[in-house]
Amino acid sequence: MSSEPCPCSCAHVQALICEIIDSDCSETRAAEIRAEISRCEECARRLESERAIRMLMRRCCSEETAPGYLRERITTQINIIRGR
After folding, report:
1. Host H or E run for residue 45
2. Rg of the chain over all Cα atoms, to the nearest angstrom
3. CA 58 to each of CA 3, 8, 63, 73: distance values in angstroms, whole numbers, following the listed order
4. What's the pLDDT score for residue 4?
5. Which segments in the chain show pLDDT lower than 70?
6. Is the CB of residue 28 less than 8 Å from the CB of residue 68?
7. Contact 53, 73 (CB under 8 A)
8. CA 44 to CA 16: how far, in whole Å?
């Protein structure tokens, strides 16, 4: 394992991770994202960690739902951050 810091842009990698996990991107696009992320060991670990965390959250919190106002607020903030 390398002690070198990841040379990738955190914002770019996070956007790719969100795109592959949060959206219904095509299998072609998902393959492109996986290929790009796999070039960096640290980024690949980040993707797998994000997937594991989200799977755990779904399993532990699947019976609970956030109130509508909170879900709307979170969605709005995500869209602001993503520049939509």
Report:
1. helix 41-61
2. 15
3. 33, 29, 9, 20
4. 62
5. 1-5, 84
6. no
7. no
8. 11
Instruction: Take residue 4 and report the two structure tokens written for it.
Output: 């070198």
15-24, long-range: CB < 8 A, 24+ apart:
15/82, 17/46, 17/47, 17/50, 18/82, 20/47, 21/50, 21/51, 21/54
Phi, psi torsion values for 67, nearest 5 degrees: -60, 150
Q: What is the reported pTM?
A: 0.61
Among residues 41, 42, 16, 40, the alpha carbon closest in space to that of 29 is found at: 16
Please name which of 50, 39, 41, 29 lies closest in space to residue 5, comparing C-alpha atoms. Answer: 41
Q: List C-alpha distances in Å: 28 to 1, 6, 25, 48.
A: 30, 26, 8, 19
Q: Which residue has the tokens 């779904």?
A: 58
| Polymer length of the chain | 84
